[in-house]
Design a protein that fits this description.
The complex is a heterotrimer of chains A (521), B (129) and C (445). In chain A, 34% of the residues lie in helices and 10% in strands. With 521 residues, chain A is of the alpha/beta class. In chain A, strands 1-7-6-5-4-2-3 form a seven-stranded mixed beta sheet, sandwiched between helices. A three-stranded antiparallel beta sheet of chain A has the order 10-12-11, covered by helices on one side. Chain A has a two-stranded antiparallel sheet with strand order 8-9. Chain B has helices at 29-35, 88-92, 117-128, and strands at residues 8-9, 14-19, 22-27, 38-42, 49-50, 55-61, 65-69, 74-79, 101-105. In chain B, the strands form two sheets. A six-stranded antiparallel beta sheet of chain B has the order 1-2-3-9-8-5. In chain B, strand 2 (14-19) and strand 3 (22-27) form a beta hairpin. The radius of gyration of chain C is 25 Å and the shape is globular. Chain C has two domains: 81-339, Type I PLP-dependent aspartate aminotransferase-like (Major domain) (Aspartate Aminotransferase, domain 2, 3-Layer(aba) Sandwich); 346-444, Aspartate Aminotransferase, domain 1, CATH 3.90.1150. By secondary structure, chain C is of the alpha/beta class. The N and C termini of chain C lie far apart (54 Å). The chains are: A alpha/beta (521), B alpha+beta (129), C alpha/beta (445). Chains A and C meet through helix 3, helix 4, helix 5, helix 6 and helix 7 of A and helix 1, helix 2, helix 3, helix 4 and helix 5 of C.
Chain lengths: 521, 129, 445
Amino acid sequence: MANPTGWKPDVQAGVAHAAQEEVGLGHATRGLAFEEGLLFERGSRGRTGVSLPPRGSDADPAREIPVALLRPEVEGLPEVGELEVVRHFTRLSTWNWGIDTGFYPLGSCTMKYNPRSSEALARLPGFAELHPLAPPSMAQGALELMYRLERALSEISGFATTTLAPAAGAQGELCGLMVIRAYHVARGNPRKKVLIPDTAHGTNPASSALNGYQVVPVKSGEDGRLHPEAVRAAMDEDVAAIMITNPNTLGIFESHIAEIADVVHAKGGLVYGDGANMNALLGVARPGDMGFDVMQFNLHKTFATPHGGGGPGSGPVAVKEQLAPFLPLPLVVREGDRYRLVTDPAERPRSIGKLREFWGNFGMFVRAWALIRELGPEGLRRAAELAVLNANYARALLKDAYDLPYATDSLHEVVFSDKNLKPTGVTTMDVAKRLIDHGFHPPTVYFPLVVHGALMIEPTETESKETIERFCAAMRDIAEEAAVRPEAVKAAPVKPVRARLDETRAARKPVLRWTPGMKVE
Amino acid sequence: MNLPDDLKYTKEHEWCRMKGKRATVGITDHAQSSLGDIVYVELPEVGDVVKKGESFGVVESTKAVSELFAPVSGKVVEVNDPLADAPETINEDPYEEGWMIQVEVSDEKELAGLLDAASYGKFVEEEQA
Amino acid sequence: MRYHPHTEGDVREMLEAAGAKSLDDLFRSIPAPLRLNRPLELPPPADEITLFSELRRLAARDDVQHPPFVGAGAYPHHVPPVVDQLLLRGEFFTAYTPYQPEISQGTLQALFEWQTFVCLLTGLEVANASMYDGASATAEAVLMATRITGRSKVVVSAAVHPEYRKVLATYLRSSGDRIVTVPFGPDGRTDLAALSAAVDEETAAVVVGYPNFLGVVDAVPEAAAAAHAKGALCISVTTEAVALGLLQGPGALGADAAVGTFQSFGNPVSFGGPAPGFFALREEHLRQMPGRVCGATVDKLGRRGFVLTLSTREQHIRRERATSNICTNAGLCALASTIHLALLGKKGLAELARVNYARGRLLSEAMERQGFRRVFSGPAFNELAFEVGDAEGVVERLASRGIAAGAPLARFYPDDPKLRGALLCVATELHAPELIDLFAKAVRS
């Protein structure tokens, strides 16, 4: 076995029996965990956790507002003191896995370290307490920051201009497709179809459908890449656009992108870039230079704004000059040394309009700008290099233990499958759950759909060599354990506060909120 | 794989049992086991008309959605309403208690296009290979 | 670089293991002509001290010395420090969508609590795990109504937030659905006669604000009755959710869906975002609800736990036939609201709402003392429009004194001559009675 690092999985000395010894390869122990009920199940009548000022007026709402529209209190709300609230959420937090807890190699999600600087800066009163309708003279700092971020994102992606408005990646996709549609409408025909490769994120077809486009799937080749012939065969003058993630969700660079773009452009179509995997390209290559006409960023992936347990995101959309007139409002502009937002459709008559209230997820702009500012051009390129290095290192340490369905070069992430484990009965889901016992967050599982039993690993640049080694040791350990004690793998996880949860029960008999006397058994 | 001989099958994994002009329709044992735990089923209403090869409803597991395709055309005369509250019946007993709809067949000639148990079994094997 | 732990030695060893000659070599799959052969044109790297001095300088150019007297969809409220200190627990803010429920019970249980809060405040039966914002939540609710009813017309009150209506128009542009806007009367409530006349058998939904954009408590029961008479859904939109501590939940008044933002709970105005959109619904329409939803279940040992559920509605499974393309939503903002609502509790929310109502009355009286009459006669909560003459001039003048004065309604309703001099202002628990007096005087002089 080629193992140039000299590292060996230490099967005998406690590693295989990590769970028994209660220390995983990620150094996870069982720790001290508390049971904690719902807020609504605790507290006592009359308690509160806030300190409010006097009303200042004894005006009676019932004299103004129809009595039928009033209520004395909201029935069912909890009554808890401040300490109870603090303890409740502190305990809940200990049941959670975050990047701060440990390695989080969730493929396609780019779970890199969220800098504390960015958090502190976003909380500066000048940013956090600024009202979106404060007159521009009171908001020059925020507007300048938006302007600088817009310029930086356009430069990083190689496009003419960028809208910061979309609230998340999927809304960015929606925005990009609306812009594409508006462009085609302006040329007299909205067209009917969008081509989407089989490796795409589910948001791509959903965003297309929301825009009234019919989705035409395109098969990727045996090397995991999209080939010009496949696109040529599907391409006609009813196709509005093709949506391509580059590198794709297999972590593979679509090296035929320029030719594919030519094929699409020749028939009047446009090329949409899903920027979910932009982390691999920072400072190395720019989508705008390879034939893309429009792409969305995911600031919460590439620029380390926190994922927050499922948002908020931010999905700026960058476009070529010819699409700029169609971008949504607002746009931030500089006039001399002043900055302002263009919000009046009269100034941008071809704009698709507004996608969300106000100006975008400004709090995320501050964080993303802070990271770009701290890293600079060299640091951004270094981020891409190390992200790709880490993924390739993980690939080297795992390729003889897990099936690698595509031998093609990997960029920032690598996809394995559970094929080799088939004789043991252990599946990708079992591997994922066993990783938890070792003290690692599992990779993305069962995606992309083109790989049966996919395990999609994206380490990101902020993880150290040792962390990746320990993670790969755990992966290898699980593969070996699957051969000798598959039942132990299938019983995982045993360490978290909850064992595997019954998702079937949740879907068959949905309980989606607390009600008095609620019992879930 | 449980494949009763008295049924006709489709390549979309529905089965159909004829009694006079009335066809009872459900999904096969193979279909339910590949879907996994079924959590939801959406069926037409009595009086609706279904068309051979077209979608008449949806079954969902926690991780997948699958359309139901009518093996024959005709008017829906009965619907297995208890499935709405107990979709697991489809997993437990796909050919009896887990039936979905009964259809008054409008064109008996359509039955000729359906598979018998042996050919369906062979089809499934080939599909899996 | 503090975020990049690799030593030169690490890089060397890792490259060797990966079979690459250099870092550049790792990118060999990118054809040379597609690579960038120059450094990005960006400012050079900044150390932490430079970074902070630069961004502090920028932040200092924003004038936030006084609490703004403008609401109009983003409300200045006190955020108890408990909220932010708990949000900063890394296990919360550095987690992603809870794909692995066993190690995401914190996020999941908090979402379950959020869904419960949304249901309790709106008086509806089910809620999702949050939306991007109130405007897109409104658009998604209308799209849902068109799916449920199979109809393609939507009747929207002109008193629904104008930005929300613009977003709705953007979302509906490609679907072929039609928006009919009905006016509001001199009381600031939706013109019910016009509404009833507009609703017909083609109408999928009626959309009204509660309170509406003009700060007026709109007639949800009547709007719901008009919708239901023709088989349409009634959607209520709330931007100032503190009002729900004083007002009946829209669900109890007949609304079939309630959407909007909970920004007022635990989220700073932050120049307009992020903030959590909410989406609540009658249970019968659950399968048509967009977005993620958390449900209770049990683990293998029979202990209660939580998972994301009903995911077959969503894009990652149903792809182009999903109920929406939404994926990431506003989880952390929803957590902020959940923590704030927990602190408030039953008594605190009722009192906060009454403080806000009282401050609205103080504002009204102070402005009247300065000779500014209220534009609308309908019942208000904490936001009111006043006739001030040159509204833009007032805003400009007060800006120079560090006060964000309000939203001139003519910006939003340029064709309505009655609103030419109208200024929409808000007063909350942040606006002490003396400050309100000073404000009214400042508007005068």
